[in-house]
Specification:
Elements (H helix, E strand, L loop, with lengths): L1 H16 L8 E3 L16 E10 L9 E5 L2 E5 L3 E11 L6 H17 L2 E3 L12 E6 L4 H11 L6 E11 L8 E2 L13
Parallel strand pairs: 1-2
Antiparallel strand pairs: 2-5, 3-4, 4-9, 5-8, 6-7, 7-8
């Protein structure tokens, strides 16, 4: 499910930002390889998942049930996730201003299109009802820690929170009889 959401986002950004006949502008990849070198070309935007968190506010507490006649089955509630995404641009050796322009184009895209659903965007997987994008501000200390954990020196970047990617296996358990009568006949055990 995560790859479907991120591939969709990569495709949307490329459709908006790429120049025909040129290599794709946005690449879904680890921004840095294991040697600490950038995996994105000069002027290219890298899109990378940096954190997954469960959405606690909209969390469903009760199991789902499916009734068929006198039988009932239960399944665990779905998990709703928020994904923190790093969008970084490689300025290369002398293209810093162009890199900032490229990053500004991505920010402008999300300012104008921050909500996607599978009705308005048929390319979005039918398993994903909707996603929204919001800018996620990091303090300088958090930004320093993020880039240190990635293993690279800072390059122009922005972090977005993708909200409500739903994971649902819909694995219903064994069939149990439906409780039809509840009485209050109490019996003493001892």
């Amino acid at each position: 499910m995560l790859n479907k959401a991120l591939n969709f986002l990569e495709d949307q950004l490329n459709a908006r930002l790429s120049v025909p006949g040129q290599p794709e502008t946005v690449l879904l990849t680890s921004i840095v390889n294991d040697k600490g070198e950038l995996n994105i070309q000069s002027g290219q935007l890298g899109l990378m998942l940096v954190n997954v968190e469960e959405e606690k506010i909209l969390k469903t507490q009760l199991p789902r049930e499916k009734r068929t006649g006198d039988q009932v089955q239960f399944a665990n509630p779905e998990i709703k996730l928020n994904l923190l995404l790093l969008l970084a641009v490689n300025p290369g050796t002398d293209n810093y201003v162009s890199a900032l322009d490229r990053l500004s184009q991505a920010i402008t895209f999300f300012q104008g299109t921050s909500w996607f659903d599978n009705i308005a965007y048929p390319a979005l997987s039918p398993e994903i009802e909707e996603i929204s994008m919001e800018l996620f501000s990091l303090s300088l200390e958090q930004q320093n820690q993020l880039w240190a954990s990635i293993g690279a020196k800072y390059i122009p970047s922005v972090v977005y929170k993708m909200r409500l990617v739903v994971i649902d296996e819909a694995l219903f358990g064994k069939k149990n009889p439906v409780i039809k009568v509840i009485d209050n006949n109490l019996h003493r055990i001892n």
